Each structure stands twice: as C-alpha cells, then as structure tokens.
Amino acid sequence: MSSESGAGNNQRLQGKVAIVTGGASGIGESVARLFADHGARMVVIVDVQDDLGNKVAESIGIQRCTFVHCDVTDENQVKTTVKSTVQKFGQLDVMFSNAGIPSSSQQTVLDLDLSEFDRLFAINVRGMALCVKHAARAMVEGRVRGSIVCTASVAAKNGGKAYTDYVMSKHAGLGLVRSASMQLGAYGIRVNSVSPNGLATPLACKGLGLDAAEVEKLFEPFACLKGVALKTGHVADAVLFLASDESEFVTGADLAVDGGFVSA
C-alpha cells in the first residue's frame, strides 16, 4: 500500500510507539505520516527544523504525533529524547534513524576537506550510532521486541568518483546495521536498513540548486527500471515493511529501493 493513498485498512503498526529522526521533511516526513496512517499510537518526530517539525506534527494530529527538537550528534539530547518518549508513552517499538546530510562538495581523496568530513560524519555516522544505541537500550530495558531501521543509500555498496566523505559515511552506517543486528538479535530486536537511490527531497533539491522535476531527471539514468520516478513514498513503504511485524524474521538486511541501480 502506498503512503500517498492515505490511511488504509491494514493497520500494520497498530498501538506501536515510533521515533522518526529527520522527520520534518523528505523521507522522514513521509515515514511519519505513513506510520500514523497505519495505526501507530504515537509518532515522535525528531529534527532540528523546529517550524517544519511542528507543522508536520500538527498536520498529522497531536493525538498521534509530536515534535521534539533534537540534534542527533549530541548524545545527551538523543538519550533524553528516547527516555522522555518511553516515560510519556510507555515504550519504544520502532526507531527510524533517518537524519542525515549530503556532502557539501564533490570531495575526492586528493582534496579531502576534513572539517567538512567531520561535520558529515558527526550527523550521518555518530548520530545514527547514538540513535541505535539508545533505542536499543530502551527496548532491552522494556523487554520490547522492537525494530530499528536506518537510512543507508546505494552509496553504501559502491565506490564513487567524488563525494568521498558521503560514500564513506554510508558504508559506515551499513556496517553499524550489520553489527547491531548480530548483537541485538538475542533480545529479539531487529535492525535493518533501506538504501534508496538519489531522489528529490527538499534537502537534495536545495543542495543541487534544482527543482524536483530536474532532480528526478538527473537521477533517472541510474535506474534500469523505467516509467517511474523514485518518490519519498516508495522509501516510506519499504521502511513500513521493516518496522512492522510483516518482517518479523528479517534482520541485518539492506532493502534497496533504487529501481535496479546501475552505475552510469
């Protein structure tokens, strides 16, 4: 069922409590809306974009969604966000660690700017590790057979002629997912990731200086599947599957949402 078709009959997250980082826009916003459509008791949107985050939460409905300002690079903020979620809503069933940024320049190894490298790794790697760590601790303490889903990328499995820092960060994220899935399986906690191809999120459009249609056209050659453009809703559908009990025996997996990615 597509996220763009609204609330459905199949409530796949009925009664569950979920945190969605980077939930104020793009993939995170689509996931937050889809989780609420599928019966989540509460969706906690985590972001640093306060105005956008509050607007999304209000549009979903304050009975089902709330916004929390949290910088995922700050361990105290992540820990407090997870702890307050459990205190207010009783448990944490799903963590979607999605907050991330693209490379600010087409960095190559020969020209690597370590200040930019450190900023990107702080969000894409450190932030993800903190979200997985504290969500897992809450699930273990609450004896919840939870699901943790991380946003990876097609860049997590391929090298690149540029954007070295971004490619490295996504490889690191995939390593985290694989290690965490092995370590947390004993507690019944599943850890998986989704790997989309490039798509027209607000952040991508801003970074590339293009509108949504132009971004979709830019990435079209990288998919062997023609006749459909990758949307945030397609990624959200994959995240919903991994978050729900329909993927009860799936862990350590990276679900590609890339139209059959090819290196052009």
UniProtKB/TrEMBL annotation:
PROSITE patterns linked to this entry: ADH_SHORT (PS00061)
Pfam family, one: adh_short_C2
InterPro entries: NAD(P)-bd_dom_sf, Sc_DH/Rdtase_CS, SDR_fam
Domain of life, per lineage: Eukaryota
Family according to the record: Belongs to the short-chain dehydrogenases/reductases (SDR) family.
Name of protein: (+)-cis,trans-nepetalactol synthase NEPS2-like
Lineage: Eukaryota, Viridiplantae, Streptophyta, Embryophyta, Tracheophyta
